[in-house]
Each structure stands twice: as structure tokens, then as C-alpha cells.
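To: structure subgroup
Subject: Chain for Friday's discussion

All,

I'm putting the inputs and outputs inline so they're searchable in the archive.
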Amino acid sequence: MAVLRLIKKNLLNIAIVVCFFTAIKLALNYYVIKTTIVQPRHFRNFEQVAIIQQSGNLRNIKETKRTGENSLDHKNDNNIDIHQNPLDSLSETHRDETVVLKTDLSFPREQFITTGIETHTPPTFSSSDDEEMPKTDEKPKTLSADINSPDVSNSDSLALPIRTFENMRLLFWFSVRCVVPDPTSKLLTVSHCEPNSPHLFSLLSTGELVYKSSSSLNNQSDSSSSDRQSPCVIEHPELKPLLTLGSCLNAVKLNLTSTPFLQTTEPQPEIKTYTGRKKPGKPRCLSPVTDKNVTIANKKACLGSPIALTECMGTASKVDIMSEEDMQESKKELVNAKGHITGRCVFPACKLNAPVPPVIMKNTTNPCRVVSQCVTVLTKTAKRPHLVTRLAESIRSVRGEDLRIISYDDGPDDLEGTAWEKIRQYPKLDYVIGPEPDMGISVGRNYALELVKTPYFLLVDDDHVFTNRTNIEKMIDVLERTDTSIVGGKFEGHSKFGGRIQFGNYLKTQTLSLFSGLCDGNITEFPGCEQCDSTSNIFLARTQDIRDIGGWTAELKVTEHTDFFVKMKAAQKKVVFCDDIEVANKQEKMKGAYHNLRYGKERKDHMVSILLSRYNVNGFYWCSRWNLDPESKNPACRSYKQKEVHC
């Protein structure tokens, strides 16, 4: 009883002490999170637009991914503000129905062009005066919009309004190749996306897909009259289901959809649609096919392959709708190439073979005397904080000091408490967690690069470890006494990785090649160093020079390495490789989700397609120094062990 009386008497004091220590704990946790989790400024910050239409009233709800805040802009039926929304036409017959769509304002990517049109059930939204929208229990349905059956007698079904676009490039998502009419047969075919020869399409509010060439764009004065005069996509009258160009009176009626029933490997579930014969069917999508079978979509579309309306197949039928501005940006290195086409290399990317001028020595005006003040270590990881802390520990052990490390990780923040405790042991380690999962190597590095405040940064992988041969001082010396942009090294126990990047007809097709070990001469002032086109993923770089080329290509979640150095060569930025600078590459055995992210076959194939499409080539190979043909005047390989060839 005495104990209870004592506790009761001092209850207030006990509560104050508990609150005090709880506040300290929360403050420490807040500090750790705030100093280790940074929200990027521009991370795919799309504005999602949901158009809700009911009983004649249309509300435009804007939702930003980053903030998660909603705002409602009330518009009447005669003044619909949809902010560049592709749903720019809603027919009067749909006024009493509810339709919901989400789209990215730059235009929805990874869509499907289909004759099946989908109806969605909307979520519940509340207006500013807490008025709740009525709910509906209707399930999604689809209708055929085939030209042979303009009127469908099904009162339970509703066709979505057409998601229009105007003067856009049309690409197949997996192969990253464009839809282009064959100049002879006029059949729609798969082709490289040539930056100087635009082939543009417009999807009208009435469902016609209109084609415009560069010449028709230059001659047009009025866009509406031009649409009426331009040819439309039709089914070839004799080669159905192949598509060609013809009179818009015979056009197939199309729409964009992102329906979940489009599978990649498993059979398509039964979808109730109706044709003019009132028999069940399945929606058809714009898809590449082979000459041998024109009824089944084929994701690995060869150049010149015809395009048809086939049963929708997830990966094969997926398309990108790209503006001409975005297309020019994606081909920037190809468009701005300064070289000349010479010899046997006669395709546009051959201009990128122009050699970079030799390294020039210069006087140091503002030398770096303290490494920690002029170098930041940069790495991208994927849920492997234990490797990042191992890297930090190796720096401390080898150098006797900590260097600032920026490590960018995929979201969400679901690391265990023990991981954060380990991270806190390295005060200069900024472990940054992005807002989305699977950002990819390029995006993570680019956002880490935004956070660098020093004139130089040292790029390493998360499974690298410093050794006594990780000579940062020599790398700084090379940068400060020459006009080079990057100084690289190699992995401990491995041969020279620095090499030459060359475009040519190496695999009986247009090819991008990396010749490891083939460089352009020693730099006498720095023994063991020579000028190359590329180096390994251990290099010290001028921060501003890498920002000037736009960093790494964001679409390349993997297979980003060669593309990065093609961009460096295109910008005439100089690269030096030093054979006596090393890190230890202590890899973990990859398994499960991480292995699929790095080496999953379909993912890797798609990334290689993106790489090849950037330069309009059909193949890539890497040739080691041991396979170089010494008798060839031009770079040549005796055997091709690592190669990717697309038809």
C-alpha cells in the first residue's frame, strides 16, 4: 500500500519524465528521417486528372502524386476545363452516365489502341461542401467500336468518349519502334523513329486515326481541314487484318485503353463484347505481326513487320504516344552529331564516331587540398543498405576519414530499425530514399547528382569496397591538370575495362559496339593513364560536366553504362582511364526480386531495345581486349560472346 501511495503522490512527476524521454526519442527519429530521406524535386510529378461526369454536371478533380491534395474546379457543361485532357469530346448521349479516367497531362504512356472500348466504375469523391457523389455497383464492360457495327443495341453498356491526341508519334512500347506507312505498299509497318522524318498520327473524337507526313504538316494551313483531307488508318480490303491508309469513310474506329485484361503470358479472360453479328468476341488492338502469322501479336517486331488488328496481347500491343518535342529530345545525340559519314559506316549514328580531341594539359588555378571538401561519393542502391554501410566502413578504414556519401535507394521507406542504426554510425552518409519503387539506376543517380555540392563526385556501385589502390588524390590531380571530364579505374583482379565506342556494320546490321582495351594513347604526365571513350563504374567526374549532358538517360533502368559514355562522346567530353586505380568489386549472389530487377529477361530485353532505339541501330556487342583482331585496320572482333541483335 505504501508503494501505491508513493506512486499516486508522484504520478505527475512520473508522467512528466515519461513525456520528456518520449519527446527526445521522437525528436531523434524525426532528425534521422529528415536528414536521410530527401524528396526529389522533379520525380515524375504528374498531375492526375479524373473527369467525373454525372447528371449534366462535370467536375474536374486535380490530384498531385507528391502532395496527395485534391482540389475541385467546378465547371458547367458549356465551359469544360480539362487542362489539355485528351477527353475533349463528350457526346450528349453520355451526359447521364458516370465516366472516370486517369491520365498524365503530358499524355498517357503505355496505352493500348483498341477497338474495344471500356467503361469504368468511378471511386467516391467528396466536394468542398461535403456533398457525396452517389455510388454505383456497375461492373466494367466493353463494347466493340468496329466500323461495321456503329450502333450496338445493349442498354447496359456504355462506350467511353474517345481519348484524342493530335500530331503524335506512335511507338510500340516493347521494341521502341515507330508506326510508319511503307512508301510503296502503304501498309503500316514497324520502322526506326527517324528524328528528321516525322510520321505523325491524330486520333479524332470520332475514332478515326489520321496520318500526317512531314510534307503534309508543312503545307497545312488549317488543322481541321487538314484532318479531313489526310488519309486514315483502315483495314486492307484484301489483306485483312493488316492495316493500311485510305479514305476516312472506311476508317476503323479506335480508342485508347489501359484495361487490366491485357495479359502477357496467360490466356485472355472472356470479355463480353458485341459485333454487328451480335456474337461474343474480344477487343482487337493495334499490334505488330509477322509475315508468317498476321493474326497473332508479336512483341519482338522486326523492322518492316506489318501491323494489324489482333487480339490484344499485353506487352506486344502496348504503345507509347510521344510528342515530336519529346522525340527530338530522346534523339538529341543523334540529331546534334557533329561528325561525318565516311567509309563503310553510312547510317546516321556513324556521325557519333567522330573522335574526341586529345587531352590538353593546363595549369591548376584553384587546387583541391582537402579531398573531403571537393569530392562526394555517389552510389545507387536497391534495398541493400548493408552494402552501403560496408562501403562507408571501407572508406573510413582505408583513408582514416569519412567522405560524404550520397546513396539513393528505391522507395518506400521500409528499412528495419537495425539498418538505420548502422547508417547513423556514419555521420557523412546521406541515405536517401526516393518516393517510388524501382526507380532504376539512371533516375537514382540523377537525383543523387542533384544533391552534390562539391566540384567533383566519385561514382561507385553499392557493392564496391575501397582498397589501398583507390587513389582519389591521383584522380583529382588528373582532373585539375588536364581538361578531361572523367578519370576512371578498374575492378581489383580484372583486366583493363576502358575502351572505344564505335558504330558500324559489325553483325551484318547497324550496330553499337564497345571495344574494351582499345584506347587512343597514353598520357605521358600520368603513367598508367590513357584517353578512352569509356571506363568502368568507378570514376571521378566534374559535377557540372555530367549535369551538362543531362546525366544518365532516365528510361534506362539498367544497361545504362554504354549509353552514358555515348552521350559523353557526343558532347566531346574527354575520358581518361588509369590502370593503377582500383576498387574491390565484392558482389553478393543476386536472387529473387533484386535479380529480376537487374537481369530479368523481359526487362533486360526492353532496356536493350530502348538503348538501340536511341541511336536507331539493331544490335549491340561488347568485345574484350582478348578478342580484338590485331590484323584489322578498323576495330574488329574475332568472336562475339556478349551480343544483342534485334531484327
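Points worth raising on Friday:
Confidence is low (pLDDT under 50) at residues 28-109, 116-158, 260-280.
The chain is about 25% helix and 25% strand.

D.
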